[in-house]
Amino acid sequence: MGSGVSTITSKWQVTIPGEIRKAMDVQVGERLAWEVKDGVLTARRLPRLSSLAGCLGSPDGAPAVKVEGKSAWAEASVSRHKRISGATP
């Protein structure tokens, strides 16, 4: 596992050291969940939005809500993911 040191900026931001980024294979736009337990701060990567595609479909495979032939949830989710990750729409 990697290790490193970060400094908290005046805007309360922290840079993830390169060795940690490589060990976690994190990419720009990904989200991390933070937890403090017994004085120890941990971070874990949240699943990428694309890994959740189709999870709200009905048992017969049809989208849960349809708008003009597309799942409204899927369309909104993909659009938000593209905005957050900096991908072009």
Structure write-up:
By secondary structure, the chain is of the alpha+beta class. The protein has two domains: 46 residues, Ribbon (Pemi-like Protein 1, Chain: D), CATH 2.10.260.10; 37 residues, no CATH class. The chain has two helices and four strands. The strands form two sheets. It has a two-stranded antiparallel sheet with strand order 1-2. It has a two-stranded antiparallel ribbon with strand order 3-4. The chain is elongated and about 50 Å long. The termini are far apart.
What top-tier CATH class of the largest domain fits best? Mainly Beta
Overall 3D shape: elongated
The gyration radius over C-alpha positions equals 18 Å
Give the topology string: H per helix, E per strand: HEEEEH
pLDDT < 50 stretches: none
Q: What is the domain tally?
A: 2
- The count of β-strands is 4
C-alpha termini separation: 36 Å
Main beta sheet: 2 strands, antiparallel
At the third CATH level, what is the topology name of the largest domain?
Pemi-like Protein 1, Chain: D
| Separate helix tally | 2
Strand order of the largest sheet: 1-2
Beta content comes to 15-25%
In short:
The protein has helices at residues 18-24, 72-85; strands spanning 32-37, 40-45, 66-67, 70-71. With 89 residues, the protein is an alpha+beta fold.
List the helices and strands and how they pair.
Elements: H1 18-24, E1 32-37, E2 40-45, E3 66-67, E4 70-71, H2 72-85
Antiparallel strand pairs: 1-2, 3-4
